[in-house]
Amino acid sequence: MENEIDYSGYTLSELKEARSTIDEQAWPDRARMLDQLIAARESASMSSPEPAAGINLPGQDDAGQAAQPLRTVPVKFHGTTGEFFSIWIVNLALTIATLGIYSAWAKVRTNRYFYGNTDIDGHRFAYLAEPLQILKGRAIAVVLFGGYFLASYFNPLAGVIVAICLGLLTPVLVILSYRFKMRMTSYRNVRFNFKGRFGRAFVVFVLWPVASLFTLYLILPLALKKIDQFLLESSGYGDKSFKTRLNTGEYFGTGIAAGAIAFGIFLIGGIFMAVGIFSSSSSEEFSSSGSLLFTFGTFAMYFLAYVIASGFYSARIRNHLFAVTELDGIARFSSDVGVGELISLRGTNILAIIFTLGFAFPWTKVRTANFYAERTQVAVLSDVDQVMEGYTSDVGAAGEEAAGLFDVDIALG
Fold it and tell me: What are phi and psi of 126, to 5 degrees?
């Protein structure tokens, strides 16, 4: 007996798309059902009057009410550790053999695997970048880094000046990076885009962090909120834009709690280390076992502080971001990442990579993709079929690769 599929929430164009992919000989009943639904929908659309013209707020219908989703669907990831391990090991071997040149091809193969195995509502993402685009960008990044290295080697002051200049270029690198990433990502044959402005990026990525530094990081949560808001509101899908209503209180509450967790870990860990070290009965024991305890204790404190505090912050903020963000008329999102779950995931991933000398990396990457997919839902809205390609400017990979090299390649969730 055929597996039943509920097509009641499908739009007319989606019904037609599903019908075009059905094998009539293998699924005759399903093909006949789709034909009947398409005929009924076409008949209803011809007899229904056109809606009155009006201006609605994002996510609202003509009556000013929140737009009801056609259906709510989970995000699915179809990749497996075995498949990705075979890709990863070949990428690693060829990258080493070519002194890093193949890394551009490795990045494209990896992204295409993960994008192509991520499914929302029966459609998968596509990564459109070509290896030569990445390679050219990396060549420019190497030139920038080489200039900084040479300046630092021959004249430390010149190195500091170059470092400051590169820091001031951070907004440019971030925008070029995001613009390239988004334009190289498509879903249902429509590309994403990023329209961030350099002036606003300078305020968000330079002025706000500097201001938080001079306030002893008291306004750091607000600076982080400004960054997330800028990245989300500058992003789009075709001719549609992302809208968000981030809550400042959520950022301050989560940030203060994460900072308190990290401080508590270091405080308690420091007390235990001090007791253990100074309980040594002789100077010889202090110099041997004490130094070992200090090294291990310091590593353990940093590990726990990073895993627990960052896991707490990331889970809370991710859930908030998804809850208050909408792709205008296309989709709403929800995330139910548990704090304990994410802490466990990150901690075990790091330990697995350390104790397998890196060979567990494919397992951790696939495991992480599955984790986030299983805890993400998308509510499909009524305008899902109205989106059109709306932003077609060409971008290059130079910004992305330079940003990655100087550790300013920002990413959400």
Answer: -135, 140
Q: What confidence tens digit (pLDDT) does each residue in 8-38 have?
A: 656 666 666 666 666 666 667 777 777 777 7
Instruction: Give residue 284's pLDDT.
Output: 54
Cα dihedral: 17, 18, 23, 29 (round 10): -140
CB 91 within 8 A of CB 98: no
Rg over alpha carbons for the chain, rounded to the nearest Å, is 26
Handedness of CA 305, 307, 308, 310 (dihedral sign): positive
> CB neighbours (10 Å) of residue 399?
24
Query: What residue type is 100 in one-letter code?
Result: G
With 0-12 / 13-18 / 19 or more C-beta atoms within 10 angstroms meaning exposed / middle / buried, residue 24 is exposed
Is the distance from CB of 54 to CB of 27 less than 8 angstroms?
no
Amino acid at 203: V
Place of tokens 């193949």: 102
